[in-house]
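quick one, three chains, predict together pls
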Amino acid sequence: MSNAVGIYAVEDVLLVSIKDDITDSDVIELQDGLSEEVVRTGARGVVIDISALDIVDTFVGRIFAQLSGVAKLLDAETYIVGMRPAVAMTLVELGMTLPESNMALSVSQALRRIRANRTR
Amino acid sequence: MTVPGGRLVATVKLSTDRDVARARQAVSRAFDDLKARAIRKTRFVTAVSEIARNAVTHGRGGEMSIFVHDRPPGVSVICSDNGPGIENTEQAMSDGFSTGRSMGKGLGGARRLADTFELVSSPGSGTVVRMSGTA
Amino acid sequence: MPNRSDGKGLEIIEDDFDAVVNDWIEMQKDEGIQRTDLFSETEIHEQTRSFLRAFIHGIRAGGSVTDFSLEHKSWQELRDVLDDITRERIGRGVPAGEMAGFVLALKEPVFNRLREHYGKKVDTMLDEIVKFGSVVDELALFTNQQFIIEREQVIERQRDEMLELSTPVVELWERVLTIPLIGTLDSVRAQEVMENLLEAIVRHRAEVAIVDITGVQTVDTQVAQHLLRTAAAVRLMGAECIISGVSPKIAQTIVQLGVDVGDVTTRSSIRTALVHAFETVGYTITRRGGEAEQFV
């Protein structure tokens, strides 16, 4: 995987960090790599940190939506965290509101929510 | 091609997705130089990303020229591709229209995000998009 | 050295500097555009002198009066001085017409001197007058343009300030924000509301944002769309958006308009919205003493 994306396992959660110069092929690689990683590690949660991203366009937005769906099928709860205000406003303008994805303000908030949901 | 009142700051060849990222970076820098607010920059760079990708995936590659304007402060781009051209441009820009695997929000989205947007295309002659965003 | 062939007008200004300054100021007085109410005599003198000085410097730096173009680099100082004078005058409330009048009042003192100097040589005199006159005209035009640009910036700034004032985000509790909307919600204002709210969410690490529409006059399809888009953006940031102040009438309107609010949380009052917000961030309100009656 290119160094624009990093996947780290923290206990039973996979943390995905994305750098701002990500290309379309990096995103596609992430999509393939992440689902394999979920199965390999038996992760129960995935947290994708996009706070470094200035831009999320329709292509990247669509992949994010799919990532959440795929992880859900593999029994891992996915959170997209740290979206910048300007990115959120632009996505709304594009009509991409990611209704199927869980969103959180920060990595720690997402981790808290994953833990809370698992102990329920 | 020149844009009245604009300074050409970069020309980016568009043939791979790496070039799409380069186009985004070049336009980002132009907005940073103008000390634009984040929302202005993000909106326009997102639009640039859409049309640059369109040129790569549907237009067999092309080229993007980036201009900086001082009065009023802003950035404009001209993106031309070597593709087959678009038969029905209005249809292509409506949300939900797609020829490939995309969701079809790209061109219409770019038009909404840019302050001015102009698309010239006809079958067999490639597509040229000019658009601008104020800083 | 100044290019002396460039016109008698310039020569006159140089040789007779103090007298021209005085006449120019007199001229401003006669025209009723010398604002002694806004500027002191000293300030007016200083502005007038620095203007003329910059003019002479421009010529020395190679600026041409015959092919006058204010864009030329030799006129940088003159442009700056004009810029400063314009900005200062706007700051004190001088109207646009007077700004140009200030510059145009330079014509007569110089014309008078040209007339004295050339006497019967009418053709040469007219040439010089035309040449100098067109330079002054261009300077007046420039100040006018500067004036408009400056004004626009002032208006833009005031608009920004007004928008900011009209959309205050208030922290109600830790991680709970509210933005009370009042009046009309057009697309410019909706954009501003969204931006302020999202930035406040980041700043306060807020988990709930209450958009209170009690003070919004009418909710039509467009306003409803703005509200839903705000809610969608808040959700993308990872927070929950509650729209409060939905009166029975507004609720009916929304349904009649066929607007789908999806899963956006709505409440009739900010009070009930706050109760919901407390639950989300992990608090309950209980009455002290007695039977410990819950408000929730």
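Confidence is low (pLDDT under 50) at residues 1-5 of chain C.
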